[in-house]
Amino acid sequence: MANLTLTGILEKMTGKDKDYRYMATSDLLNELNKEGFKLDSDLEAKLSNIVIQQLDDAAGEVSGLAVKCLAPLVKKIREQQVLEMTNKLCDKLLNGKEQNRDIASIALKTIIAEVPTSSVAQSVLVSISPKLIRGITTQGMSTEIKCESLDILCDVLLKYGNLMASDHEVLLGALLPQLNTYQASVRKKTVSCIASLASSLSDELLAKATVEVVRLLKIQTTKSEITRTNIQMIGALSRAVGYRFGPHLGDAVPILINYCNNASENDEELREYSLQALESFLLRCPRDISFYCDQILHLSLEFLSHDPNFTDNMEEDTDDESYVEEEDDESANEYTDDEDVSWKVRRAAAKCLSALIVSRPEMLSRLYEEACPKLIERFKEREENVKMDVFSTFIELLRQTGNVTKGQTDIDDSRQGLNPVSSKLLLPAADPSMRLENSLDDELCLGCGVWSLRYLLKQEVPKIVRSINRQLREKSIKTKVGAFSVLKELVIVLPDCLADHIGSLTSGIEKALCDKSSTSNLKIEALVFTRLVLASHAPDVFHPYIKAISAPVISAVGERYYKVTAEALRVCGELVRVVRPNIEGYDFDFKPYVHPIYSAIMSRLTNQDQDQEVKECAISCMGFVVSTFGDHLGKELPACLPVLVDRMGNEITRLTAVKAFAVIAASPLHLDLSCILEQVISELTTFLRKANRALRQATLGTLNTLIVGYGDRIGSAAYEVIVVELSTLISDSDLHMAALALELCCTLMADKRSGPNVGLTVRNKVLPQALTLITSPLLQGQALLALQNFFGALVYSANTSFDVLLDSLLSTAKSSVQSGGVAKQALFSIAQCVAVLCLAAGDEKCYSTVNMLTDLLRSAGSANSMLAIGNRLKNGSQAKQHLSLLCLGEIGRRKDLSSHDHIENIVIESFQSPFEEIKSAASYALGNIAVGNLPKYLPFILDKIDNQQKKQYLLLHSLKEVIVRQSVDKAEFDDSSVEKITNLLFNHCESDEEGVRNVVAECLGKIALIEPGKLVPSLKERTSNPAAFTRATVVTAVKYSIVERQEKIDEILYPEISSFLMLIKDHDRHVRRAAVLALSIAAHNKPNLIKGLLPELLPLLYDQTKELIRTVDLGPFKHTVDDGLELRKAAFECVDTLLDSCLDQVNPSSFIVPYLLSGLEDHYDVKMPCHLILSKLADKCPSAVLAVLDSLVDPLQKTINFRPKQDAVKQEVDRNEDMIRSALRAIASLNHMSGGDCSHKFKNLMNDIAKSQALSEKYSSIRNE
Known about the structure:
This protein has 62 helices and two strands. By secondary structure, it is an all-alpha fold. Among the domains are: about 500-575; about 820-970; about 975-1105, Serine Threonine Protein Phosphatase 5, Tetratricopeptide repeat, CATH 1.25.40; about 1150-1265, Son of sevenless (SoS) protein, Chain S, domain 1. Keywords: Repeat, Ubl conjugation pathway.
């Protein structure tokens, strides 16, 4: 912009006409916001002066615009001009006219917020700090000036406190005396100011501030309002500095508890502020507050019902859940007293209790015993705001229970079919009378396992329902919403817990949905709860109340607000299942509900002018209605089904409609779909070409279901088109999609009505894709199983012979050799498909194939001895031998091969191969062949182990294959075999070779699953063996015996598990590591086995995170060896697992500092699990992490800023990149926590990441994952 134009604007800004001044200031603001705006030194000074003058403009809108100009202006002018502006504004604030003070204050805050660089900020701070301190401390200065000065200083400290370290002591000296002033507004702003300063104070000055505040609190003669301010100051300090306040809790907490207990009846605010400070301690200093948690719990529970002016004798606890509401019953709300502020104490107590629940998962069992009944009792709270906090606190208790019981099944389900001891494993006795019955129950109660928490909650359900029912009878909408929120969370955490209470809750649901005063929010909460309870309970518990429930739900489908309608449709979907749970026949008469439900949904299905969510819910719900009630909707279906087909043609509703047809096609009613079947098949076939992955998946599933149920009405021509389309989906780029496509292809081939052209199309289109897929190293799981089934089905096709298929499969390995070799996983896949193919073709083909494979082994064995042979030939022969062995193993596992003479000797000859993969395949083959005929081949393997020392390792692997397969198939060995196997294995426990010991351990562990009564005592006996290798082997064996599925070993292992896990304190580090790994597996698969031991095991586990560094003297130089690296890595990985399965037993605060903190600065292999742990803690225990957030910043910052040496190899560079991304994931989790912005160090870290292009790009990609 030309200087002349700017001069014109400035002249108008100083004119007499306020409209001109306004327009000119607006033009200036626009120009300042332009990127290319520049000023010379003369104009800078002139412009700055005029803008400052404009702040005093009599027209408020002009001065307001002038303030807005300051933000861009400070970024465009020199440092000297910024200083002049701030000095003038400070002068206006302290010495100017009263009417200009507010605008000067706002202007100063704007400049401070927008200062562009740290150097400018430093100069501004040096200039204005003394003036602000003078404004605060000068005798006779008005309250308004003090408050404005404190406000501005608070902003300064919040943003630049760390730049003012040299002034911290002076600032503290100026601010602390203001806590004793008689001006309440000054005291209040001083609290905020000191809190802003505290986060950047040194430990010494922080201690000084705390000591001074505590000293003031101890003075009994201090006025009550000043004492309240000092209590607020204590709480604010802890919120500002987090864990750094921990060392001062010993002085502060007893004083606050004393004030709570001894405050006068008229000083409820003193109690309120004390409880708020204690709440802050719980959240911000969870480690150091541990000692006082019991006292705080009792205090919170006591003041939760603190209501000295009101005696409640109206709501006696009664078992009568059918209590009928009296008309105009407002008795609970009759008492009012405007001067009564005791509700503030009760609210503070509820929040304090909530903080205790959130921060102390290890106290949950105790909280259920002491706090849960009290909270339920306080649902009757007369102050609505307090009642909402009580509801929130109880919901927090339920959520924490859900966190520590996540992934577990319900109590009653888990106990079915178990013997008494197994049941006790899952359900520790919680009732005191039960605890005295036997010592096993006592041990289990010490564990406070997940089932204990659920059991304790289940005991409170009747009381919860009685109390909630009373709340649902209240007139307050807010109360009813809160009550349904509690019920909703209860059903989520403890499904099937309301089976005995449906009748008493029905009236509350009905009233919430039908009452004219009900809001949309209340209706949504009531509907969500209804849906959850219908989905989680057996249908028959609702049948007496279906009429009462269904009428308001069906009515809600017609609501105008789309959120209510959508939720009502979802509830209708559950109602359909409930009224007719069994198509074949049921006592309940569902017919009266068929047409009302259908009509309500149909009205929504045919309505085009409505929200997408409603459309999708209507489509899904109609799918359930048709599949369940279709036999009673004969006249309606011709009108309904075309509408669903039409919705398939709409891109927005297409996916939902496809899923709805899958439900309809799977219906046992076998409905007549002839009127739309051809069109549906045609539409679905075209969907296989769409880019939408979810649509393709749903389409494959729906086509499969339609062909199974309606194949007789679909032409062979349609099958051919489907085969062509699905063939393009078979690749390793999407294995799940490939599995679905192969399953559909198998369904098509299995249909006897499919013509020869279908088989031909499969051979030409699908088979080449399948043969390509089988060579993928990624192939596994469901896709591999589907591929096996495909080859099995293909044998029966008239167009494809067994010999051609076998040759095609074997050729895939040959072609891969030509192109550089086939992956090991691919050879296993080929072998499994060959085995399935042979078994499907019959005994004759199987016999000839085995003969061919043994011939290949003989010829390959002779080729291996000719080491001078060409490289390609050698590789080809090696691949043939490798694949032949794997094929024999897979066939032998499925079929007895004893009819082939000396096959075991042919296989064992391959042990002589110079190639490790051949020897490994031979070991695998021998073991699997033995599975097919144990009486013949097991003695052979055992004999060879005893007599062939050089082949021992391979033979042990063969034995492992036998044992593992038997343990999975629940087979049993005869007694003599078990004894012989175990003796042989125990003899090899002390082997010098780690590989041998690992195989022995796995064999022992798996055989323990088969014969636990014999193995567990034998393993326990060896935990005291003098040989460290033996101790490590037996504890590793136990690790292999703890599997996810329920086994008979569990009840035998439970009382003995401590003998193995306590080896975590063994003097040998290898034994300790084995114990840590066993603990980790137990925590993952069977947490209830170890919960009772965790109080003793956790400190021992944490000790394993210490470094074991030793220096080896190699003569000319010394080499540092870290013997504890693997142990530390295992220990941190174990903690990661415990956080998932045993969170209620872990005190995160005692683990984060110092153990996790040291891990974050450790080796790469240790840092990675530590980052995962930190992310998990940020999600599950944010208060514990927030308390020490400052201390976590440095190690994370070092990690993301680390750069490998210039001569680093690619592997080192890649590992470093992985580590940086891992650390950034942890940082993203920390940033997601509420309250992380309290840490200046963490905010600076986030700013540094944002400024670095490389880091910000990585961080953005991680957040989008």
